[in-house]
Inverse folding.
């Protein structure tokens, strides 16, 4: 494994070590952390460790800049929740915040300095169309008007097409499950909803119980095919585990919930790579007790894919095998997402459509205008 | 760290250094600039001669690069692009826009990332220790006025970005070249025979663009922060009599907030910084048609 990100990992594991880094180290580390979406996290860790003053001024300014942006997003998400409380007031049953929005609204461990791009909501499946209608009345517009895309989301996925607020441009994902309807693992979202606890500041919304937060974070990371934020998501998981690990009964409930929700496999990977990369303290027997864990050979084989995939955090630390690994994991994520008879036509259509669109637009990607 | 001026390098040496990466300091920022494009080399030699360069080590705020794109467009109607640490935030531009693209890219780096500061979209110059901030809508003649002031003994802090330090409320200089557009280029050339300009970039999204070399004294003082004294909203109007009239503070506040790059991002701090800036500044509307007349009024304003 490449050691070009040694300082990034060291800073995440032992924040006080940052006080000793020289400016040559920071020259690469700030870029790696920014690219991985972790610069705000490093700033928050430095602040918590009381070593901010020991960092070079320019580095502190870069961290402060991202933390300023993160604080704005946290303010914005709280304002959205005020509005959404009104919009969704007629809805029956719980509305649960997932990931970034939950970390921000409930002040959870991964929150400080973390950036996020959309609000993820989980509602009971029976309520999803009522929720969608209420959101549309509240000014949330659905994207993906193409009938194939609509069918893809509505029949096969665990969420509706992303919705954007017409004035505030906030993006919202409305979920009724944490894994697609067609996925190989059939989990139980209703049990996640049942164990959620309401937020004091926004009683219309809840957050999953600690064990479920960890399970969802791990499931999202190890079932998604996109790795730009892989290391950042692992750091979220690490923050949750470090925060809850001391609470009595947490590890037992984690194993129990993993069994109930059939999410032992992603939990195993989450714990394994947290330990490997971030030296997260995990009691020795927890990995052994993890349900549905892969065999030793299988785990080693997956190391050859996951470890290089995490290295895509920045071009400087990219493992030579990263390209193949990320592609293989992309195919794997689709394999886990839908059975082969749906998957093949879907991938063929998707790649054909991308090619045609690229040809028509003559531009691979829409990018920012020059200032 | 041995500090030298960029202008002390021969064109060949500069080209060699840029091909590997040259560390350039502008105000609080260190840019590592990388380019094999000769027009970029010439542009830097003409406009950044007084700027300090040092060892290509230590912490750099932004690692930037301007080079030809890969693929057929490096030969057929060749294009260049701008990279920030390996990412290309913009669409490629014609080869002839290479240096302008570097300037825009550097502005974008600061405006899009430096949220440690309150970043206003305004020019700022100083005389007698008093800074005058010039917000201006496009076409208001802000850059022309900025260039004329800089060429007549005013210290140039910046022509696009007024940077307010969150720790002390002072204005942080960049002292980078002034971007002139279309007729302004000839107006300034005629106005001051000593004006040194880079090569013209034709048919950009802003029309024809050229950059004016910043005064050497402004560059040598780019580490000295300034104190704001006035906010002047300039408006050039053919045949207008030169006129300075009070501008409502409430409106000046809203204008600065709406045209800032990161006002709302800074939340309460943004409000406080902006409010104390407006409180301490005289706020003025300024209509003019004659640059010489304009200079006279500006000199009186800070005397």
């Amino acid at each position: 494994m490449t050691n070009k990100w040694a300082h990034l990992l060291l800073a995440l594991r032992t924040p006080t070590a940052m006080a000793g880094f020289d400016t040559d180290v920071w020259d690469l580390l700030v870029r790696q952390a920014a690219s991985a979406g972790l610069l705000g996290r490093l700033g928050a860790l430095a602040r918590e460790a009381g070593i901010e003053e020991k960092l070079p001024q320019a580095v502190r300014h870069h961290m402060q800049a991202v933390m300023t942006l993160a604080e704005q997003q946290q303010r914005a998400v709280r304002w959205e929740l005020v509005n959404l409380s009104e919009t969704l007031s007629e809805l029956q049953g719980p509305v649960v915040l997932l990931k970034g929005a939950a970390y921000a609204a409930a002040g959870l461990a991964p929150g400080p300095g973390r950036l996020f791009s959309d609000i993820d909501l989980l509602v009971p499946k029976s309520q999803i169309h009522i929720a969608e209608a209420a959101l549309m009345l509240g000014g949330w517009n659905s994207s993906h008007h193409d009938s194939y895309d609509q069918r893809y989301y509505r029949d096969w996925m665990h969420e509706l097409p992303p919705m954007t607020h017409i004035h505030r441009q906030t993006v919202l994902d409305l979920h009724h499950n944490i894994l697609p309807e067609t996925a190989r693992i059939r989990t139980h979202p209703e049990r996640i909803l049942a164990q959620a606890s309401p937020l004091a500041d926004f009683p219309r919304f809840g957050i999953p119980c600690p064990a479920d937060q960890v399970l969802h974070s791990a499931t999202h990371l190890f079932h998604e095919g996109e790795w730009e934020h892989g290391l950042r998501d692992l750091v979220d998981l690490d923050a949750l585990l470090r925060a809850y690990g001391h609470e009595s009964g947490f590890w037992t409930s984690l194993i129990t919930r993993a069994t109930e929700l059939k999410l032992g496999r992603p939990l195993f990977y989450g714990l394994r790579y947290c330990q490997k990369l971030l030296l997260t303290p995990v009691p020795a027997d927890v990995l052994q007790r993890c349900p549905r864990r892969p065999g030793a050979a299988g785990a080693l084989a997956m190391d050859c894919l996951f470890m290089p995939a995490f290295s895509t955090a920045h071009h400087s630390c990219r493992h030579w095998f990263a390209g193949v690994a990320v592609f293989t994991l992309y195919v794997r994520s689709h394999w886990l997402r839908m059975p082969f008879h749906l998957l093949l036509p879907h991938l063929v259509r998707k790649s054909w459509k991308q090619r045609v669109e690229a040809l028509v637009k003559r531009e691979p990607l829409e990018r920012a205008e020059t200032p | 760290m041995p500090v030298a001026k960029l202008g002390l390098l021969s064109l060949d040496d500069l080209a060699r250094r840029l091909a590997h990466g040259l560390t350039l300091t502008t105000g609080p920022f260190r840019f590592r600039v990388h380019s094999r494009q000769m027009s970029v080399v010439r542009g830097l030699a003409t406009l950044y001669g007084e700027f300090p360069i040092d060892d290509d080590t230590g912490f750099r705020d932004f690692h930037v690069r301007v080079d030809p794109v890969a693929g057929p467009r490096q030969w057929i109607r060749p294009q260049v692009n701008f990279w920030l640490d390996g990412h290309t935030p913009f669409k490629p531009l014609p080869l002839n826009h290479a240096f302008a693209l570097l300037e825009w890219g550097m502005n974008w780096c600061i405006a899009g990332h430096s949220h440690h500061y309150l970043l206003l979209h305004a020019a700022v110059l100083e005389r007698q220790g008093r800074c005058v901030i010039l917000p201006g809508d496009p076409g208001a003649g802000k850059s022309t006025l900025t260039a004329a002031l800089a060429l007549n003994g005013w210290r140039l802090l910046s022509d696009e970005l007024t940077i307010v330090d969150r720790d002390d409320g002072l204005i942080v200089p960049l002292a980078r070249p002034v971007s002139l557009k279309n007729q302004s280029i000839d107006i300034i050339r005629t106005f001051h025979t000593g004006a040194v300009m880079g090569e013209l970039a034709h048919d950009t999204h802003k029309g024809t663009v050229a950059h004016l070399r910043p005064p050497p004294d402004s560059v040598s003082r780019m580490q000295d922060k300034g104190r704001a004294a006035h906010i002047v909203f300039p408006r050039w109007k053919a045949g207008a009599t030169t006129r300075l009239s009070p501008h409502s503070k409430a409106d000046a506040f809203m204008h600065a907030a709406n045209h800032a790059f990161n006002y709302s991002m800074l939340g309460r701090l943004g409000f406080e910084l902006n409010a104390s800036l407006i409180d301490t500044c005289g706020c003025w509307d300024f209509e003019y048609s004659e640059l010489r007349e304009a200079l006279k009024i500006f000199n009186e304003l800070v005397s």
In short: Chain A is about 55% helix and 5% strand. Residues 57-87 of chain A form the longest helix (31 residues).
